[in-house]
Amino acid sequence: MLLCALALSACQPGESQVLGTLEWDRVTLPAPVAEKIVRMDVREGQQVVAGAPLMQLELTRTQSQLAVVQAQAQQSREALSELEAGPRSEEIAQARAQLSAAQAQAADAGAYYARLQPLGRQRLVAAADVDRARAAAGNAQAQVRAAQSALLELERGTRSEQVAQGRSAVAAAEAQALAQSVSLEKLNVVAPRAGRVDSLPYKLGDQAPVGSPLAILLVGDAPYARVYVPEPMRVNVRVGQMARVFVDGREAAFDGRVRMIRSEPSFTPYYALSGRDAERLSYLAEITLDKADADLPAGMPVRVEFAATADGK
């Protein structure tokens, strides 16, 4: 019994040791649109450089949408050019001709009304005829004023506010075309950083929903240990503190440094505990390995020993 107890105690981690797993920084590439995967360029576990193609999604729909917004942008640019050029000389000549015709009609209507006035006073024509002639003369004069205003508008050219609106419409259309062009580029999925392909959740021919991970990369120069620090040890663990990391399957330890430790517990909330139950709290910490093999796999069990701090703890 004594020998068994000694053996079990030897297997227990020491008070200054914590347990966890070996991890790499992960980069997830989500699906920008719900399109079918038409080409796969890598396999899981493959090393890739930054910018290397990973896969391609169906381009037809996005290319058509890009063509539509590009045509709309071109239409807006042509409309702006028309506003900046102002009215054509033929339009001004047409407006002058319409003014001349309106003036001639007004002169004719005025003359007819002038001839009917004395006849109306002598009661040789009906009063209604005189009234209709007066109304026709007034309407003809109004047509002359409208034609004069139309000619003046053309002669003064396009208003500056209209040109400004045209420029804003061009800017909006070009921005939409640029956004659609970026969406089209995202259909060619490339590696944002150098690393190793950890997972390809979807295969050739699959259609992933928007936002679903198309590829997961393991990136970085070295892995890190993700461990859970018990509450009694939390006060003695600080960012920048040196540590020794023992990876399961490797005899030699790796030197590391604490890069992060959470201030909130990962398990039972502190307000639900009191007294000795507080020892059940754990705090997530990450220890970067200074020198480690690039082929160390993620998920391996690790054991971490923290070095003493400046105050000797």
From TrEMBL:
Domain of life, source organism: Bacteria
Compartments it resides in: Cell envelope
InterPro entries (UniProt xref): HH_YbhG-like (IPR059052), UPF0194_transport (IPR050465)
Pfam families the record matches: HH_YBHG
Keywords of the record: Coiled coil
Organism encoding this protein: Pseudoxanthomonas gei
Protein name: HlyD family efflux transporter periplasmic adaptor subunit
Keyword Coiled coil: yes
Domain YbhG-like alpha-helical hairpin per the UniProt entry, residue ranges: 64-180
